[in-house]
Write a structure and sequence with these properties.
The chain is of the alpha+beta class. It has 4 helices and 3 strands.
Length: 125
């Protein structure tokens, strides 16, 4: 059976319409998935509580420092002249040659005060 030209054209037109409809449907579903992804990304990130981790790190670092360093340290905050006297007392009481005595760190604070840390070995061997 031979179809008329009008019938043949109608079938092609229907196929084209179906093809456009399918591509529109797939575009909408793709757009919906993009929207879903964008919504999930836009939600604020809630960080987990880190108190336990911070506490564990501090404890571990303190333990490692205690194991690897046998120096005795004392920190003082004194006026400049008193700080010099205190440092001299340490060097007189714990000689540098025997105790490895040193001023480990220092800084000048407002009001002409000095914060400093003295370091020495616990015993002279």
């Amino acid at each position: 059976m031979v179809k008329s030209r009008k019938e043949a054209g109608g079938g092609e037109e229907r196929q084209a319409t179906d093809s456009i409809r399918k591509s529109t449907d797939s575009t909408l579903s793709s757009q919906e998935s993009v929207n879903r992804v964008a919504e999930s990304v836009a939600q604020p990130f809630v960080s987990p509580p880190l108190d336990g981790l911070a506490r564990q790190l501090r404890r571990n670092r303190a333990r490692l420092a205690a194991e690897t360093d046998s120096f005795v340290r004392e920190t003082f905050v004194l006026p400049r002249d008193a700080a010099r006297v205190k440092a001299r007392e340490w060097f007189d009481r714990y000689p540098k040659a025997a105790y490895w005595t040193s001023v480990e760190s220092w800084r000048v604070l407002p009001g002409d005060e000095v914060e400093f840390t003295m370091r020495r070995l616990p015993t002279a061997d």
